[in-house]
Design goal:
The structure is a homodimer.
Chain A: E1 9-16, H1 27-40, H2 48-51, E2 54-58, H3 67-72, E3 80-84, H4 89-102, E4 108-115, H5 123-127, H6 142-157, H7 161-176, H8 189-193, E5 197-199, E6 202-203, E7 213-221, H9 225-228, E8 233-242, H10 257-270, E9 279-281, H11 287-296, H12 305-310, E10 322-323, H13 328-331, H14 336-351, E11 365-372, E12 378-385
Parallel strand pairs in A: 2-3, 2-4, 9-10, 9-11
Antiparallel strand pairs in A: 1-7, 1-8, 4-7, 5-6, 8-12, 11-12
Helix pairs in contact in A: 4-14, 7-11
Chain lengths: ~400, ~400
């Protein structure tokens, strides 16, 4: 009975700020900068006070009410809904903005997100309200939780410590080409292997950084898109799924069921297979997460993620799909709520052939995905294309 | 260009738990109880694992990921989005569930909310992340913020201390008839006037209690409603608006612009005027808030809220609209995120003639509304009817 929202929503603008340790910028400084960049990216211009009908705002640690965002962006009076979904906050904020446009209720919707992770009293951990009886209350931290998966993957499939070091090397190579990256430097497999252990097998260079950042995207009804740009990007698929919060209820430690289900929903809506994806922004919070996501998104067979990276397939200018041309969470950075929308903006640039040195050639379909929780608990996927599918 | 979602969504089930100081119940105990009550209320039954397509989950202080909710309710794998919007969290969660159904993407959506306010480390204030430069960081607490409005209202319009005491008396009279109320007792104007001052003119009995609670509602596509019940309730209007977060940017201290704009959107969608509303669940976080909301929702003229209550209009069995037949936040209770969905459930019962002793006779249209923030910053309104309008 349900009706797909495929092709009904168009992305007409996107903006981010340079990610990093932004002690000099406040939460709303960052958000406003991303928002203004986003407005500027709308080719034929937009009058935000008149034309933006509603806002979905994503954050983990930012202010509770949407009103603070309306005030900061000069959109007082507008409907603003605040949304949160662990590390999938940004992608789910974008998904909610798309659903709102598809409902017909609003013509133009802003999805905006920011995260100040480095200088808040109590920091992100306090803000994210990690309390019993969830696994992270019992000293299972993020790297530990994801390491439990990759160690099992190594045991079952023979993937190696080196395979995930290659993921880090690749993403830093891509991120080096991105002027907005938090860590814009190349590394080698040896850099990764010889850096301090965080939670075996993850060393410092297997873990994404703690990043401040903000991102914004504007979507509208597909039939209004040409009013704003001659190069709209269409939302062709999305999906959201959940896994158990408790470790003892998880059904697999070599795959992420919520990733499989979320991408299944998105592929089904788009009417495509994984082979049709030209490039993907995947969730490399830890290198092992990206490797397992190659498999769970169907980019290679289960257990062959190691082979996939070893053969150099996900590198820029190599095979298909290219994975994390932006540099990923590893090099570009991971300001939780903002990450997903920044990935959407990367898709916007890539699909409009505006990604400069890191442009994926002849790309028509991009996939964006966040995995959230201590180990996978939530996964949100969006698929975009530069033509209606 | 935008298309109303009027009549497209039907409410087919609703459940709450008895509100109160529920030290004996955990967050998910409360939520599960409300959810099971909600399932039982679906007249012709529902198979949640098969038929609930997605969940929107509202909370201020509860767990960050939707996955925890999916796990608790036996809905692992389903899309669950967590939403927050200060005291309007519940109404906006319901609004988002309705938008999702109206988009066509999902046939049946659960809106669920819970709030554990009394026994968390750090409590609600920590969880809600009140940090500078917002007014509440400078010792402007919730009662103080709303008192600034009612004192100005008294000065400009000659409303009195007694007028708002009558609001408290009315809501306790209604709440006495509600077996689910937190404070199920009648009070007099003298009780209110002689109780300790919290922030003048508000005394203890002008302030809603700190309440634990949970609530759940199930919506579906209107054309599927008869599969689940012969007495569906239709969503005919909704609206969301924001006011400045900073006190010095507020444009009025005798009215709440976000309430005016939010109800304007909802009335416009429903194609009705305030005179058509048979009863309303309004936001009496403080008695003065309810009084100002009489005016800003158009139930009486600006400045005549005092006369409106003095003439006994909003009392059960008296005039129209009856305001807060449930007992309101004052007597029924105010578990932040859950409050709005509990109001929706009250509308469900009233519009199906199932409200027992507190039934509003011959009611066809009910309005539900939450105001959030330190003083009004956000307002969300939903209008429901037992027939398509």
């Amino acid at each position: 009975m349900s009706v797909s929202i495929k092709n009904k929503v168009a992305l007409i603008g996107g903006g981010v700020i340079k990610f990093g340790e932004l002690f000099e910028k406040g939460f709303f400084d960052m958000m406003t900068e991303a928002y203004l960049n986003c407005l500027k990216s709308v080719d034929k211009g937009i009058n935000p006070a008149k034309e933006i009908d509603a806002v979905w705002y994503g954050t983990i640690a930012g202010p509770s009410t949407g009103a603070t965002v309306a005030q900061a962006l000069g959109l007082i009076g507008k409907p603003v809904t605040r949304l949160e979904n662990a590390c999938a906050t940004g992608s789910d904020t974008f998904r909610n903005a798309c659903i709102a446009v598809a409902s017909g209720l609003y013509d133009v919707v802003l999805a905006v997100a920011a995260e100040k992770m480095l200088d808040r009293p109590g920091g992100l951990i306090q803000a994210a309200r990690f309390f019993p009886p969830y696994p992270w209350s019992y000293a299972i931290t993020m790297p530990t939780a994801f390491a439990l998966y990759y160690t099992r993957h190594m045991h079952v499939f023979g993937t190696t410590r080196e395979h995930i070091a290659m993921v880090a090397v690749k993403n830093h190579e891509h991120g080096f080409l991105n002027p907005l990256s938090h860590f814009r430097r190349k590394i080698t497999v040896d850099t990764v292997l010889n850096s301090p252990i965080v939670s075996w097998p993850f060393t410092l260079y297997d873990c994404c950084p703690i990043t401040d950042g903000a991102a914004a995207a504007i979507v509208c009804k597909a039939d209004l898109a040409r009013k704003y740009t001659d190069s709209p990007v269409y939302v062709v698929g999305n999906g959201l799924s959940s896994d158990p919060a408790f470790m003892h209820l998880r059904t697999s430690f070599t795959s992420f069921p919520c990733v499989i289900e979320s991408s299944r929903q998105a592929y089904k809506m788009a009417g495509i297979t994984p082979k049709d994806v030209d490039f993907a922004e995947l969730h490399d919070c830890f290198t092992g997460t990206e490797l397992i996501c190659y498999e769970d998104n169907g980019f290679c067979k289960k257990g062959e993620g190691g082979k996939f990276i070893e053969e150099g397939i996900p590198y820029l200018g190599a095979g298909k799909p290219v994975v994390n041309p932006s540099g990923g969470l590893k090099s570009h950075g991971h300001p939780i709520g903002a990450t997903g929308i920044a990935q959407i903006v990367e898709l916007f640039w890539q699909l409009r052939n505006e990604a400069g040195e890191r442009q994926v050639k002849d790309s028509h379909i991009g996939l964006q995905q966040n995995v959230g929780g201590a180990g996978p608990q939530v996964c949100c996927t969006n698929i975009l294309s530069n033509k209606k599918l």
